[in-house]
């Protein structure tokens, strides 16, 4: 079961209050078929622990990797993922969907 947005954001706050570097990833736009709707969250800490989901598959891994840089330099990033129908399922996007994800440090 996926955690609720309230659980995810409360956990981000708790991690930050405990002194951990934390990044928040949010789906900000989708086109076509996408596994998670706009507003979906994923939080990542400096050790690579995470909670929530923005897509699944390779997209989630790429967002987690990018979050390490965001935690390090504090600079937000907008990531865009999209694939052709024939490769969509391998990276976690069904039917050629496209998504944009904002990754920002939690201060």
Give structural attributes.
107 residues, alpha+beta, 2 helices, 5 strands, globular
Walk me through the structure.
- Strand 2 (41-45) and strand 3 form a beta hairpin.
- The model has no long low-confidence stretch (mean pLDDT 87).
- The protein has helices at 5-17, 57-73, and strands at 22-31, 41-45, 50-52, 77-82, 98-105.
- It is built from 2 helices and 5 strands, in the order H-E-E-E-H-E-E.
- The termini are far apart.
- By secondary structure, it is an alpha+beta fold.
- It has a 5-stranded antiparallel β-sheet, sandwiched between helices.
- The longest helix has 17 residues, at 57-73.
- Residues 15-82 form the XdhC- CoxI domain.
- It comes from Methylobacterium indicum.
